[in-house]
Structures are given as C-alpha cells and as structure tokens.
Design goal:
The chain has 272 residues and is an alpha/beta fold. It has eight helices and ten strands. The strands form two sheets. Strands 1, 4, 5, 6, 7, 8, 9 and 10 form an eight-stranded parallel beta sheet that branches. Helix 2 runs parallel beside helix 4 and helix 6 packs parallel to helix 7.
Amino acid sequence: MALTMTAAVLMLLGFAASARWTWWRASVPGLKVLCYHKIGVPPRGSKLGELWVSPEKFRAQIKFLLKNGYTTLLFSDLKKLRAAGTALPEKSVLITFDDGYENNYLDAWPILRELGAKANIFVVFNTIGKVNLWHNPASEPWVNMATLEQLREMQDSGVMEYGSHTMNHPHLSALKPEDAAWEMTESKRQLESAFAREMCAFAYPYGDGAYAPEIRKKALEAGYIFDFSFRQGKTPWPWERETATIDRLFIRGGDNNWDLSLQLSRGASRLF
C-alpha cells in the first residue's frame, strides 16, 4: 500500500511538473516573432542572465528552424506581405533582437550568415558604439553596443535589418507626452539617415507604452508601420494595425529546442 501511495504521489508530481510546459495546449495560429537580446555568456554580477542565450544554443535554435522548414523574414518582407494583403508563408518566423549589442555582431550575425537565416535588430540610437547606458552599472554590468560600422556591415550583408528602439531606451510612460513622441520620431529620423532606408518597425522599451493608447498613438503618428510589444504570444494575421501591437515570443537563456517548438506552436513554452 505504501509503495502504491508513493508511486501515485510521484506520478502526480511528475504530471504537475510537466504541466508547467504547454505541450497539452492546442496550437494557435498567428505571426511568430522571436525576441532575443544578447548572445553570449552573462558577465559576472548580471541579474538579467535569462536575457543571454549562448552561441551554442542560438546555433541549435536556428538549425531547428531551418531543419523544420521555417522561412526567416526581414521587416521589409513583412511590409511587402502586408501591403499585398497576402498570407504569411506556411512556416515563417521573424527573428528580432532588442537594443543592438555588439554580441549581435560578434556572435549572432556569423551564425545567421553561415546557416542562411535572417534577423532584425531594434536599435537604441544614442547608444550606438557605446554601452547599455539605460542600466545602472551597480546592478547590471554595462556591455558594449554595436558600432555604426558594424551595423552597416550587417545590413550590407542582407542578413540584418533594423527598427527603432527609441533614442535612449526610456520608460515611455514616465515621460511627458511630447518627450515620448520625440523619442520615437527622432530615432526614426536618425536611423533612416544613418542607414539610408526606411525604419518601418518600432519596439517599445520594456514593452512600456505598447498598451497605453496615447503613447501608441504617437508611435503610429511617427510613421512606423509595425509596432512590437514585449508581451508573450502570437499575433493574428492579417494584422489589424489600429487595434493592437504585435506580440513576441521571448527566448530565454535556459530554453531548449523543445521550448522553442512550443513557443512556435502554442505561443508560449511555460506557464510559470
């Protein structure tokens, strides 16, 4: 009897643990947008280790996408699809990076280029060639951001395209409305001048403002075609621009390819 009870308890614990993952949920349709930040090893003292994905895991994830028939899209590809009113390719994914770190150039770009995949970076204009100045170095170490030359080299390769992540990476809702609008309009203007191409995409730093009507209105008025949140999920396509932002699938440092497959199919890999 004791053994039976023990086995039952172990089975329940095992089910509870596995139920944390979303394998039991139904697949949901929609635009798949992966969200990365840094590729590499977290520096000593980092409290944001989950924002770092190792080069080995990143390579395995890109190989998984390509092996399973996924097409990687650039912002310009998505713009053409929307303008034509056509459906997404049966298996397509938008790979995005937030902020514009040097490790995107040193570690992510070579892997993408080698494997034949494409990606997009939301760039913080005023930190190009500097460090992640929006972080307090006492609590989160500064790391190098990509230089203008590195960003241009990646763009010229046809592997990377860029969108805006504001001028300074602020919490937009904490700013005066006119200052929040400036962060969005000026970054678009500066990035278009620097890269000689349209910046059709914008991502809200921290996701802040994505669901604040007055802030989102300013983003759309700035001329961005696409605006991306930091909320977990997939977005219905065709996308109703006036209704809501585009959600993303946050890839954490501890995620494996099973997590990735659940993100792509279920819109999330874990419940907590």
